Amino acid sequence: MAAVSIVATACGGGDGETGATGPSGTGGGGGSTPPGTLPAGVTRSGNVFTIDLSVNNELSSAGLFVLSGGAVPALVVRAAADTYRAFDARCPHAGTSNQWEFGNGVLQCNNHGSRFAASSGALNAGPATTGLRALVVTRAGSTLTVSTG
To answer: Which Pfam families did the record assign (predicted)?
Structure first.
């Protein structure tokens, strides 16, 4: 099994609660999971989240998944068929927590409208002046691991 290292960055502030919101998918905001719980197929150990893609199909197509409760909140994106990226979910513009949208390969922070490339976290449009901070993502078979620490 091959492991692929993925860098991730995100906008938003953490609230210290463990949980996840479902994918926003193309152009939408996802549902949410109550604090202290994780969706089916997602486990957390310290600052590491493990997503069993065979159980949790929320990233079975291009989409966005938000995880909280680690060292930083994380955006996990399926940017292409076999390409997963993860980013710190705090916007580099203001560092605030916010809602994210994903569509056409672009992540948009809905706090002030900054736009980032989902494939790299690179800044597409401000007011942010830098891209998203990448997190480490590895994939081994149907298991995706995201380190937020």
So the answer is: Rieske
Task: State the number of CA atoms in the 13 A half-sphere of 139 facing the CB.
Answer: 17
Instruction: Please state the domain count of the chain.
Output: 1
Q: Is 127 left (phi over 0), alpha (psi -120 to 50) or beta?
A: alpha
Residue ranges with strand state E in the chain: 19-21, 42-45, 48-52, 63-68, 74-80, 83-88, 100-103, 106-109, 115-117, 123-125, 136-140, 143-147
Block mean pLDDT (10 aa), the chain, length 149 = 30 35 38 59 89 85 75 82 86 74 86 88 89 92 90
Q: Which two tokens stand for residue 27?
A: 């152009």
What pLDDT was estimated at residue 5? 27
Nearest to 137, CA basis, from 122, 119, 123: 119
**Cβ neighbours around 26 below 10 Å, total:** 13
CATH of the domain at 53: 2.102.10.10
The range of the structural domain enclosing residue 138 comes to 19-147
Q: Is position 8 within any domain?
A: no
Asked if residue 1 belongs to a domain, the reply is no
What would the pLDDT profile of 21-57 be if each residue is shown by its tens digit?
443 333 333 444 445 567 788 888 888 999 999 988 7
